[in-house]
Amino acid sequence: MPTGVPGLDEILGGGFPEFSFNIIAGAPGCGKTTLAHQFVFANATPENPALYFTVLGEPALKMLRYQQQYTFFDISKLNSSVRFINLSEILVKRGLEGILESISKEIEAANPRIVVVDSFRTVVRRRQDNEMEIQLFVQQLGQLLTSWEATTFLIGEYAESELRDNPVFTVADGLFWLYQVVERNSIVRKLQIMKLRGQASVPGMHTFRITDAGLQAFSRTLGLARQKRTVPPSKRLSTGIPGLDEMMGGGIPEGDSLLIAGSSGTGKSLLATQFIAAGIRQGEPGIVAIFEERPEEYVGRAGSFGLDLDTPVSDGKLQVIYLRPLDLSVDETMQEIFDAIRKTGAKRLVIDSLAGFEMALAPGFRTDFRESLYRMIFALTGIGITILSTVEMEESFTELLFSTYSISFLTDDIIRLRYVEIDGQLRKVLMVIKMRGGSHSTDIREYKITSEGVVMGEPLTHYNRLITGIPARADRVSPKEYRDRNFKE
C-alpha cells in the first residue's frame, strides 16, 4: 500500500505490505502521529475505511486541530472514510480485555482496511507487571486484525533499550523507528526500518523532514540504483570559452564530473556560469545549485558579463536552486536536484560551491561529506548529467593543491586556477590537471576576466616555475611585448 509519504515507498521497497501488523516507535515529537495520519488520508475511502483509536494520549479533537494544517488532510473524509474513536474511558474501567472487545466490535461493524491505535504504549504500560498478559493481548489483537485483513499500525513512545525484551516487537511484521537528533544548533530527523517481513527495504538511517505537506523521506541510496544513460563517448560539451575547449580536446566529455579549483577571485563562479550559458545557447537546459548568494543576485551578476539568464529562467530552461538551511542533508539536496532535472530535462548541473554546500549541512552530515559527495556525483553522472563543481583553495607557494576535501579522485576532470606574480603584477593562470576521457593540453595559460567573461591568452612559454606562483623569466621578452602578443584588444 502506498505510504503517502514522498520517498518512503522507495525506502520500504514498494510501500507498506497490505494486511501487515506494524509498530511506529520513537520519542515524543518525532512525527509518528503525522506519519500515521498521512498514510490514513492517502488510502482511506468510504469502501475501505480507516479506524483511528486513541488511548490516554492526545484527544482526537486536539490532534485534528493541528493535523488539519497539513496539506494532506482532507476534512471531507472525516466520519465517511476516517473515523476517530476514543478508548480512554474503556481502558480505565475495563483494562486490556475491554480494549480488545471494543476494538473487535468496531472492526466488525466497519470492516476497515486500516486500523491505527495511538498511543498503544499507554495500553500495555498499565499492565507492564504482567508480561504474559501483555503478550497474550498483543497476539490476540494481531490475530483479530489479520483475520479481518486490516493493515494495522500501533504507535508508541518506546526507547531503543526496550527492543530486546518487549514482546510487542516480536509479534509485529514491521517495526519503524523515528528519531529526532539535536546536533549543536540543528535538529535532524531520521528513520530506520528495524524490521519488515517479506520485503526488501533499504537498510540504514534515512533522513526525513516535516513540512506543511507532512513528512518527506530521503533514502540514503537515492539515485544509486538508476540505470546509466548511454552517452556517445565522442560527444563533448562546450565550456563557453573557446580557448578552454581547445585545451580540453574539444570540451567536457558528456556525463563527466568537472572540478574547478582556485582561490577567491580567480573566476570560478564566472567560468561555471559561462558553462551553463553555453549549454542553454545549444538547447541544453541546466540547473545551478548555489549556497552563497540568492538566485536574483546570481542572475544579476551573470547579466553584468553579458550572460542573459533571466530569459531561460522565465522559459523554464534554467532552474537556480538556492539551498541555505543550516540543517540540510545531502539526500535532500539530491532530491531537489532530481526533481529539477525531471522538471527541466537538464543536461548540465553547476554546484557553486562545495565549501558553501558543506556549511549548509547539519553538523552530523559534515563528517561524512566526502562519502556523501561520492554518492551524489555517482548518482547524477549515472543518469548522464554533466556536473561542474567549484571549490575554493588557499594559495600555497610550496605545493599545488587540487581540493581541500581530498575528493579529486571522485571527479573525472580537474581545472586549476591560480594567481602568479609576474613583473610586480598579480596575474591569473589556468591549467587542465586531469581528464579521464582523453588527452588534454599540458600548457599553462594566462587568462583575464573581462566584461565579456573569461578570455584565454596564449601559453606562458617564457616563464619557469609558474605553478609555484613566483615564476622566473626564461627569456628577455619585455612585459609590454608579452601583453601585446598574448592579449590583443
List the helices and strands and how they pair.
Layout: H1 8-12, E1 21-26, H2 32-43, E2 50-54, H3 60-67, E3 82-86, H4 88-110, E4 114-118, H5 120-125, H6 131-147, E5 151-156, H7 167-171, E6 174-183, E7 186-196, E8 205-211, E9 214-218, E10 236-237, H8 242-247, E11 252-253, E12 257-262, H9 268-281, E13 286-290, H10 295-303, H11 310-315, E14 318-322, H12 330-344, E15 348-352, H13 354-360, H14 363-366, H15 369-381, E16 386-392, E17 413-422, E18 425-435, E19 445-450, E20 453-459, E21 463-464, E22 472-473, H16 479-486
Parallel strand pairs: 1-5, 1-6, 2-3, 2-4, 4-5, 12-16, 12-17, 13-14, 13-15, 15-16
Antiparallel strand pairs: 6-7, 7-8, 8-9, 10-11, 17-18, 18-19, 19-20, 21-22
Explain what you see.
By secondary structure, this protein is an alpha/beta fold. It has 16 helices and 22 strands. Helix 12 (330-344) packs parallel to helix 15 (369-381).
Mean pLDDT across every amino acid position: 86
Individual helix count: 16
* Order of strands across the main sheet: 3-2-4-5-1-6-7-8-9
Amino-to-carboxy terminus distance: 67 Å
Number of strands: 22
Range of strand content:
25-35%
Helix proportion range:
25-40%
Which secondary-structure class do the elements indicate?
A: alpha/beta
Q: Which of globular, elongated, flat, extended, rod-shaped describes the shape? A: elongated
Largest sheet: 9 strands, mixed
Poorly predicted regions are none
Rounded to an integer in angstroms, the radius of gyration calculated over CA atoms is: 29 Å
